[in-house]
Every structure is written in structure tokens, then in C-alpha cells.
Design brief:
10 helices, 2-enoyl-CoA Hydratase, Chain A, domain 1, three-stranded mixed β-sheet, six-stranded mixed β-sheet, alpha/beta, 259 residues, 2 domains, 15% strand
């Protein structure tokens, strides 16, 4: 696939996916969603993923003109969600690799949902998170109704979803909505360092941790412990586990290879 709305590179174990519609504040289109999903399915030998936006924003939400181009607003919205944006959100959540979102400026609408679907979200102090659907008579999407109450509780989720007000990065970090808020001039370095740290980790174990985190959202304590036991059995058979255990016993730093 030739990408027109994104850029995609793999270097030093990090797959970097850049939303590349800066003149539109990286407003998402169905084509962009499909390109992102294709890229996520072709991470090759990468061991971590970094998703970022070019220019002044991470993603200002869905490009409504692209939705209207499909016909009626109702049909266009439904098709865009079920065939493009929602499969992308699931691809982010279900990906085997840890994914870091690097957020500056706006993370609004489906852009907010996609950023929060990542395992880590690092945001600059000028960033904000917004579910503005109520302001135009629409309903939050991209998984926001499932994800937000699990991240920040029902009351704060209702505030975001039903009042449609911006949540600045510092407040988002205080709430536990995101991993960290950093100075604007430190954003790129902080996000890159986090992605590099994850890329140097025990890749298969990190993937199992990610799966178990989401599994636990919807399963019992006992079922989640069983999932942990099964994941531990699998992880214990990896080369990285042997390296980690050996390093611990000999008091040295482990060198994980992602195997």
C-alpha cells in the first residue's frame, strides 16, 4: 500500500507512524484509518510502536467532510466507524507490541479515543483531550464510551462525554487519563525515550501484559489470574525469560532480544 495520509518508518526497533495531514490538524479520514491499520499489521522486526502527529496537533478528530462524501451523515458516520475507525482502534488495543502515543495540541473526537487506546500516552503541556460530540449533536465513538469510565471512572467520563470540555494535559495526567504530561520542548525526546525503553524490553512478556490488562477489564478476578498463569507459562519458555533470570542471578543487566 502506498501511504498518502501517514508516514511509516522502522528504525532501531521502533515503528514510527506519523499522521501526516498537518494542514487539517491531522483530521482522520477513512483512508487514514486504513493506512494506519495496514502499517500496524506490518511492523516487521520492530519491538515497539510510536504514533505521533505532524504539525500543531495529534489529531483533531474525524474529517466530517470525508464522512459527508459518503452520502448522508447517518450512513457516512456508521460506515466510517464500523469499517474504518473501530477496526483501527481494535488493532491498536490488540497489537502484540507496546504502543506509545506522542500528543501535542488537540487530541479530539476519534483522535482522543485513538490516543487513549495506546498503552502509553505522553502529552505536551499545551495538549488537550476533548470529546466534543455533544457540541454538534453527535455521540462519542472510537471506543470512548468503553474506555473512559475504565480509565477515570464514571463521573469524570460523564464530564468529558456529556459536557464536551477540553481536558488539559496536566489535568489528564492528574486524573490518570494519560501516562505523563511534559514540557512542550521535551515531548519528542520523552516519547522517543519511552518507546526505546519498551523496544529494549522482553517483547513477548510485554505483549502478554497488554493482553491481560484488557482481559481483566471484563473478566473476574479468578479468570484473570488463570490468564496470568497461562501467560506466565508461555513467558517462562522464552529466551528473554532465560536471559532475565540469568541476569538476576548473576547480578547483571539483562539484554533482551524480543524472543
Amino acid at each position: 500500500m502506498t501511504y498518502q495520509s501517514i508516514r511509516f518508518t522502522i528504525e532501531n526497533g521502533i515503528a514510527t507512524l506519523t499522521l501526516a495531514r498537518p494542514d487539517k490538524l491531522n483530521a482522520a479520514t477513512p483512508q487514514m484509518a486504513d493506512e494506519m491499520r495496514h502499517a500496524l499489521g506490518n511492523t516487521g522486526e520492530a519491538r515497539a510502536v510510536l504514533i505521533r502527529g505532524e504539525g500543531r496537533a495529534f489529531c483533531s478528530g474525524a474529517d466530517l467532510s470525508a464522512i459527508m462524501a459518503k452520502g448522508s451523515a447517518a450512513d457516512g458516520a456508521y460506515e466510517s466507524l464500523t469499517e474504518h475507525y473501530h477496526p483501527l482502534a481494535e488493532a491498536i488495543m490488540e497489537h502484540d507490541l507496546p504502543i506509545v502515543a506522542e500528543v501535542q495540541g488537540a487530541a479530539a473526537g476519534v483522535g482522543c479515543s485513538l490516543a487513549l487506546a495506546c498503552d502509553f500516552c505522553v502529552a505536551s503541556e499545551d495538549a488537550y483531550f476533548l470529546q466534543a460530540f455533544v457540541n454538534i449533536g453527535l455521540v462519542p465513538d472510537g471506543g470512548a464510551s468503553w474506555l473512559l469510565p475504565r480509565l477515570i471512572g464514571k463521573a469524570r467520563a460523564a464530564e468529558m462525554l456529556m459536557l464536551g470540555e477540553k481536558v488539559p494535559a496536566a489535568k489528564a495526567a492528574e486524573w490518570g487519563l494519560i501516562y505523563r504530561s511534559v514540557a512542550s520542548d521535551a515531548l519528542e525526546a520523552e516519547a522517543q525515550a519511552l518507546a526505546a525503553r519498551l523496544a529494549a524490553g522482553p517483547t513477548k512478556a510485554l505483549g502478554a501484559m497488554k493482553r491481560n490488562l484488557f482481559y481483566g477489564f471484563d473478566h473476574s478476578y479468578g479468570a484473570t489470574m488463570q490468564a496470568e498463569a497461562e501467560a506466565q507459562r508461555d513467558a517462562a519458555g522464552t529466551a528473554d525469560a532465560m536471559e532475565g533470570i540469568g541476569a538476576f542471578l548473576t547480578k547483571r543487566k539483562p539484554e533482551f532480544k524480543g524472543k
